[in-house]
Structures are given as structure tokens and as C-alpha cells.
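Supplementary notes (optional reading)

For those who missed the lab, this is the record we used. Protein: General secretion pathway protein C. Length: 161 residues.
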Amino acid sequence: MWTPTPAWTVRGATFALWALAAASAVAWGLKLGGQSAPRTVPPAPLRAPAAVDPVALASLLGSAPAAAAATVAAPTLASRFHLVGVAAGAASGAGAAVISVDGKPARPYRVGSSIEEGVVLQSVRGRQAVLASSAGQPLATLELPPPPAPATGQSPIAVPR
């Protein structure tokens, strides 16, 4: 049986290391020298979104054409005004209401004062404010949202008995 001598082991290891170094040099040479210009793929053309026809969409969803035209109508009087607070006199019927118009900051109005041209605060009672035209015809009744329900259950503070 043949046993390798230490001299052959060193020679074999040296040959393997030089072969790895040569392979690495050839790989880097091909990688750096063989590449001309980077190839870029042109991006796909972007499609613009299609314009939506509200009448066609309404008919697609099962609505009648007249209903689609009604949804584009001007906002109602009650949707433009938001009642924030009420201070009503119990016996006199006089008082004031805090009203926000078209999403602007709320302002207080006394009964009988003009909110905007042609709209007057006619009366306040409880949690309601009645808007009327300058001629006295009621236009809308604004109501405050219901108060939150009182919390039920035991108090977090323990009371000794």
C-alpha cells in the first residue's frame, strides 16, 4: 500500500490553492471584461384610468336615471346647519342656539336673529331649534344628538359600610 509522504501532501494542497486562485481570476476577468453596457428593460406603458360616467354607473348598479340626477342636487337646508347647543327659557320660550353653518365654526344665535339671508332662528325648546324663513314659514327643525347613556355598574371607588 502506498502512503503519501508529507512532501506530496504539501504539493497537492499548494496545487489546489493555485487552481482556486486561477479560477477566481478567470471568473472576475470574465465578469468585469465581458460586460459592455447594462441592459435595461423598458417599463410597461402606463394606462390612464378610464373616466367614470355617473349615469352609466348608476344604471349598472340598478338605479333609475332620474335617481342618479337627484343625487347631484344641492344640499338640503337641514344638512347645511348643525345644532351644537341650545339654551332655552322654560317659560318664556326665548333663548339661543349654537349653530354651525356649512361646516364653519359654530356661532350663537338668539331667537329672532338672522342666521343667513332668508333664514331666521324662530324658536328653541328642549333639544331642538326651529329655523324659519323671514316670512315666518318653518323651514327645518334641528335637533341635538341624544346624550350618551349613563354608565351602569358599580363605582370603581369602594365605599365602606
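If you only remember one thing from this example: The beta strands are 81-88, 95-101, 107-110, 114-116, 119-125, 128-133, 138-143.
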